[in-house]
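Table S7 (text form). Paired inputs.
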Amino acid sequence: MDFSNAQRAEVLTQALPYIKRYNGKIVVIKYGGNAMVNEQLKQQVMEDIALLWLIGVKVVLVHGGGPEISDMMKKLGKEAVFVDGLRVTDKETVDIVQMVLAGKVNKSLVTLLQTKGGHAVGLSGMDGGILEAKIKDERLGYVGEIVKVRTQPITDLLEKNYIPVISTVASDHEGNSYNINGDTAAAYIAGALGAERLIMMTDIAGILRDKDDPSTLIPELTISEAKDLYDEGVISGGMIPKVDCCIEAIHAGVQNVIIMDGRVSHSILMELLTDEGAGTMVTGD
């Protein structure tokens, strides 16, 4: 679609109140592994983040990489096993997780952001002790439960006008490494930073009243309404831990949380800089 210069100017004018609202504010974006699988979309997500950074939004990017971890395990002859949606992580697997997330995925996102005009620095949850963890469940091996978040390395980078890009691995006082669920890590980090907003990009449109009908998207709900939807079975399966993370983040001080479809072009900009928004917004009561 071709836009005239007047239409472009109109779009920018409409975005102005939102630019003013988010300028200087912290927005945490959780970029899920399942939303990363399309290279063209990945480019657009990085463009959106670079643009937000250029207009003065303090963006923190927290990323997963589940499909890439599974691919690497397959190449190394290991089978991925999941219990309740969490990857069973033995000593060898946690080394693979660390290699893929803190190495390959993290550095590729940093490089991509920089090609789009952003200044980014890659971190893992182990750097500066950002994420301290303990074993969550003996059955899962080295899957971590977060016990502490240290925000200093993140806020230092934000103050120096960098985009922190954080992979979701953690450590403990004994030097053990842990695989951390990406949604959980993003919720804890956003809460510790007192972020204005947490955006959780995934491979679904948001919370649907009927999971098979995208037109039943629920654009906004409170924590109380979310709990009612648990009871009704509307929030079920893999959506339960996602919404749990939303509630966790709000209790920790995040203003509101968005669950949105990372497969939609420029969905971040639609959410932050337009009246329409995107996905489902979860707010406090």
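Next pair, protein 2 of 2.
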Amino acid sequence: MENVSPVYARFVLREILRQGISDQLLLAGTSLSRRELETGGDIPMADFLAILESGRRLSGNEQLGLVIGRHTNIIALGSIGAAAAMAPTVREGLQVMQNYTRLHISYMRLELSSSLQGLSVQFRFLHDTGSTERFHTETGLMLVQNYVETLTGRRLDNARYRMALPAPGYAAEYAHWLHGPVSFDATCSAVELPVECLDLPSPYYNAGMWHDATLTLAQRIRELEGKEKSPYTQYVDSLLRSSEPPLPDLGAAAARLHMSERTLNRRLQREGTSFRQIRGAILGSWARQHLRETDHSVEAIAAELGYQDAANFRRAFRNSEGCSPGEYRRRAW
């Protein structure tokens, strides 16, 4: 089994010690000593999960994930957190977190999806984490909340929180920890962020460090060529899905990867697609959303999506959907 960061396990150790409980009890059944946990590098995933479960049991606190999440900030993510902390905006920080987690964490994915309402930050578990899934979910939701509130300087009371778990016995306590409404038994755990908080300039932005972070990310993606099926397709798709129209063009996406437009398109073609195809599919999704959820004119929607004129939009929509925008709207309504 893989190794993972020891940061959250160290938080659990700290909480257990504060309660006067022996570290030996916490670490029983793992391959770790207290010194190894406190000063060493990544730890086995099995030990990590065992520590989380033992911490919950020994502390007698079912809300351990919330207790630790409340004091968790972006530093907990190491190099990922450093990159996100220096990002120009919340959206760009979350985008880099999404891509770094894909590269560094195999048991969970952070997925972003933009809509007319804002940005959905979804947590998808790829491996069974047993009874510790609630811990991961609670700390993840609070990490995003803490991150957004730090960068914006505002209480995030207009976000919505979804949990892909049943309501626990302490569900009423969530109001003390999470600053917006919480729903349970969702298909996916997520934080739904309002659009107005996403693109505010961050006071922590550092151009040099942001450049270095994106350069490191680009190098890591380059290392995946030949190892993963479509690293560049995944990167471009996630970038565009988490952006609002007008979507980034080929030049902007290539610049983020520190390569030329020609090189990016060549690598996408090698993976069986093109920037134009990916962008067109996502623009189509935005077009359908506008037609279903707003009463804006076709001309206004075309302009919103970045088309030069409504005729080009109508042509592209008919090619992808087999009907005109007006016909689609009539069927949807």
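Residues 281 and 320 are 8 Å apart (CA to CA).
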